[in-house]
Amino acid sequence: MVWRPPIAKAVQDAVAQGLTGYLPGGLVDAMGAACGDFLLARHGWDVPADWIRPASDVLAVLESTIKYFSAPGARIVVPTPAYMPFLKLPDSLGRQLVEVPLLRTESSWELDYAALDTALAGGGLLVLCNPHNPLGKVYSRDELLRISQIVAARGARVFSDEIHAPLVYDGGTHVPYASTGSAAAGHTVTGTSASKAWNLAGLKAAQMIFSNAADRGKWSEVGDFAEHGASTPGVVANIAAYRDGGPWLGDVLDYLDGNRQLLGELLGEHLPGAGWLRPAGTYLAFVDCSQLGIAGSPADFFREHAGVALVDGAECGGAGRGWVRLNFALPRPVLRRIVAQMGAALR
Ligand SMILES: Cc1ncc(COP(=O)(O)O)c(C=O)c1O
Predict the structure, then answer these.
(1) Fold assignment, 5-245
(2) How far is the CA of 202 from the centre of ligand 1 (A)?
C-alpha cells in the first residue's frame, strides 16, 4: 500500500520538530478530539474527547478490558470463527475461553443468540468484533440491540473491537455497539485505531473508548501504565488520519471494493467448488474449501502447492475448520495471480 501523504507529512513534521519524547497531554487531547469528531461525522456517535484514551494497540485495549472491566475470573466469550489472538489472549491472562460458533445460513453468518445467552450465564465478557474479522460481517442495529439485551440480562460486559469500522463498503453501515443505547453504553469498552484503514499498525497507537462515567472514572485510577504504551508518532499519525485521511480512505475503499468484486469472479473461474459470502466490510474473505477435495489443512495445501499464504480457518476456532482467510488488500495483478495459482494447484 502506498504511503498516505497527509499522514506522512504529519509524522515527518513531528520528527523534524523533535516531537519524539513521551506522549504530551496536548496530543492525548488532540487525539480524543480528532477521533471523536471522526466517530460523530462518520458513525453519528457522540463521545466526549476525554473518554477516548490512548493505548499501544487494540489487543492491549482488550487486555486492559479483561483485567479491569470484567469480574475477576469471568469467562471470555468469543463468537467464532474469530480473529486468532482473541482465542489465545484469555488463557494468557488465566481466563477461560468459551467459543460460541456463528451459524452459517445461505446468505449470512448469524450469531447463535441462545448459545450466547448460555455462555454468558453468570456474567462474563463478550468479545464482539464489528466489522467482523475474518467474516467481514457488519452487524445491524437490530442484531446489536438483541446482543445488548442478552448481555444486560446476564450482567455481563462487552469488549467491542471496531478497528475495521472505517472499512465498510457502500450499502453497509457501521453502527458502534456502545451507541445503540444506555444498556450497551453501560457495559461496553470499545477499542479502535486508524491502524487498519490507514495501515499504521507499526506506529503503535490505538484508542480505548469509554461510554459511561463509571468506567472512565475507574480508568483514571488504573490506566496510567497502559496509556504509557501509545507511541508519540503513532498518536500523531492517528490524529492526521482521522482529521485529513478521508480522501485517501475513499480511494482505498473504492479500490478494495473493486477487489471484492474481482475476487468473486476469480473464485468462480478458478475455484468453482469454493464457497464464500461477500464481506460487507474489511479486506478479508473467508473461503469455504471443504468441498475442494483437500485432505488436511487447506492453508497448508495452498502454501505448499500454490505458493500462497492464507490463514487456516481452524486457527480462528473450530467453526472455521476447512476454510481459509484470504486478505484481498492486494494490487489487482497479485490478486489475479494468487487465485489462478490456487486453482492450478487443484488440477
Ligand atoms: C479485529 C482485529 N482486532 C485487532 C487487531 C490487532 O490490532 P492491533 O495491532 O491494534 O492490536 C486486528 C489486526 O488485524 C484485527 O483484525
Answers:
(1) Aspartate Aminotransferase; domain 2 (3.40.640)
(2) 11
Mode of pairing for the β-strands spanning 97-101 and 76-80: parallel
Q: Let me know if domain 247-346 sits in CATH 3.90.1150.10.
A: yes
Cβ atoms of 73 and 93 closer than 8 Å:
no
How far is residue 228 from each of residues 52, 248, 274, 301, 315, measured CA to CA in Å?
A: 14, 29, 45, 43, 31
Q: Is residue 230 over pLDDT 50?
A: yes
Q: Which atom of ligand 1 is nearest to the CA of 56?
A: 10
Return d(Cα 58, Cα 64) in angstroms, integer.
10
Using alpha carbons only, what angle is made at residue 36 by residues 31 and 42, rounded to the nearest 5 degrees? 125
Rounded Cα gap, residues 183 and 55, in angstroms: 25
Residue 3: what pLDDT? Answer: 53
How far is the centre of ligand 1, averaged over its atoms, from the C-alpha of 127 (Å)?
Answer: 13
- Residue boundaries of the structural domains of the chain: 5-245, 247-346
Query: For the chain, what's the residue count?
Result: 347
Q: Quote the CA–CA distance of 194 and 322 in Å, as a whole number.
A: 32
Q: How far apart are CA 58 and CA 69, in angstroms?
A: 15
Q: Whose CA is nearest to atom 13 of ligand 1?
A: 196
Ligand 1 atom nearest residue 57's Cα: 10
Give residues (CB < 6 A) around ligand 1.
57-59, 83, 129, 133, 161, 163-164, 193, 195, 201, 206
pLDDT in tens, 282-335: 999 999 999 999 999 999 999 999 999 999 999 999 999 999 999 999 999 999
Question: What's the CA gap between 184 and 210, in Å, rounded?
Answer: 11
The alpha carbons of the chain give a radius of gyration, in whole angstroms, of 20
| Closest to 83 measured CA to CA, from 317, 300, 309 | 317
